[in-house]
Design brief:
It is a single chain. This protein has 295 residues and is α/β, with parallel strands linked by helices. It has 2 domains: 137 residues, Rossmann fold; 129 residues, HUPs (Rossmann fold, 3-Layer(aba) Sandwich), CATH 3.40.50.620. The protein has a 10-stranded mixed beta sheet, with helices on both faces. The radius of gyration is 20 Å and the shape is elongated.
Length: 295
């Protein structure tokens, strides 16, 4: 089997959602010519961890390694993808980010159950958000249970923030990676301020022209807040469903005065509630340029 330099890190705990995320990683691994690294993190700061002896811990680790090896062998045989396995011990989100940097991963793909519902689901969702916040590389979080193979429609929510250029450039890369996936640019309007509306309209026109110049099939539209959908995230998710989106692309910029433990509330809500995979990237710090200017 050919060894590749690109690496996709997939944290697994053998839950249904983590295995769904793994299943979604196969197509990306082939498109990126990447190998997959399966990572299981054993928590060492939990109450139950303290109840086990060193010998019991070693038995647990061996059992996990056996399961990882079996899973890796199955994937390699069926998918013809190189799969590595790792076990780390520590805080889940810290170890995922640490291992991603250690192996020089191209991206992280992980399942999430959101942060609502029972304690376990809140815990899993919290880890996904923290990985997204901590990671220096793109993170794809997968909450829904049924997804198409490949990608036909990339949903690109835009506003008037300085990260617009970076988002659009990355969308072009993804479109070409997925052999001509269409980019659906959308802005949600919650204001009637004529200056802001005109500015947003002008920016979307510039973005659409740039995408078309790059040979990307695209659409660009401003939508008003939908009935029963009060937040930006709710409107973006509903739009993505109607547009048959396969991937929602967001930036995880911090909101003003929030601590490092938080990303913007809209980003959190989309990651937690979108049944469509969410591609999150941390914006590069740069001079504020709120109006999109094509390269």
């Amino acid at each position: 089997m050919i060894q590749h330099t690109n690496k996709i890190l997939v944290p697994v705990d053998f839950s249904e959602q983590s295995l769904i995320a793994l299943d979604q990683s196969y197509n990306l691994a082939k498109e990126y010519h990447a190998e997959i690294t399966l990572l299981y993190v054993i928590e060492d700061n939990g109450v139950f961890a303290k109840l086990f002896s060193n010998e019991q811990h070693e038995d647990i680790r061996k059992n996990i390694q056996d399961q990882l090896d079996t899973l890796a062998a199955d994937v390699e045989k069926k998918r013809q993808i190189t799969v590595n396995t790792l076990i780390a011990r520590g805080t889940i989100y810290e170890k995922i980010a640490e291992v991603a940097e250690l192996i020089n991963a191209t991206m992280i793909i992980m399942g999430t159950n959101g942060s609502d519902g029972n304690l376990k689901k809140r815990f899993i969702g919290s880890n996904a958000l923290r990985v997204t916040r901590e990671s220096k590389i793109p993170v794809i979080t997968i909450k829904g249970k049924h997804h198409r193979n490949g990608c036909k429609n990339i949903i690109l929510p835009l506003d008037l923030t300085k990260e617009t250029r970076e988002k659009v450039t990355k969308a072009v890369e993804l479109s070409k990676l997925f052999h001509g996936a269409a980019v659906r640019v959308v802005s949600v309007l919650f204001t009637t301020d004529e200056f802001l509306v005109n500015r947003l309209t002008r920016q979307l026109g510039q973005v659409k022209a740039f995408l078309e110049k790059e040979g990307v099939e695209c659409s660009a539209e401003i939508i008003k807040g939908m009935k029963g959908k009060e937040t930006l995230a709710e409107n973006v998710i509903e739009y993505a469903k109607q547009a048959e989106g396969d991937l929602i692309m967001i930036m995880t910029q911090q909101e003003v005065d929030f601590t490092e433990l938080f990303i913007g509330s809209a980003a959190q809500e989309i990651i937690n509630h979108s049944p469509i995979p969410v591609y999150s990237i941390r914006p590069i710090k740069r001079k504020d340029t709120t109006v999109f200017v094509p390269y």
